[in-house]
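Below is how a single chain appears once it has passed through the pipeline. First comes the sequence as given, then the structure the pipeline wrote out for it. We keep one example in the README because the format questions we get most often are answered faster by looking than by reading.
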Amino acid sequence: MMFSHAALNATLNATSAILLAGGYAAIRAGKREVHKRFMISAFFVSCAFLVSYLVYHYRVGHVVFQAQGWIRPVYFALLISHTILAAAIVPLILITLRRAWLERFDKHRIIARWTLPLWFYVSVTGVIVYVLLYQLYAPIRS
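Resulting structure:
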């Protein structure tokens, strides 16, 4: 089976989550330059995800979640929180990166305490949504 565009999007989200975790570990260890490389990489991977996601949904359109039963409200609760936070996180990421770029680290730290966990949540839940939608409860294809 060929690697799908949806799988690429999930891989980009997973990669972003791993880079974010690496950036967090690096800053906790006092390795500012390593942290900077991880976070810039996470930003570019997330940008690649966004472009890929938009292209995919432009080409494919809406994909319907097929499952019924208890998983359906769980899926939609996850999807709704993911979608709202995915929209909210974009300006937070840009503000956080700008403050670091301008070396306003006191202000950077304040917003980064919110940006990092939300960005991580969006990346991880993106992978979970993919698994639920395309792997566990895949749409029936003819």
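The helical segments are 5-28, 32-60, 71-101, 105-136.

See the next section for the split statistics.
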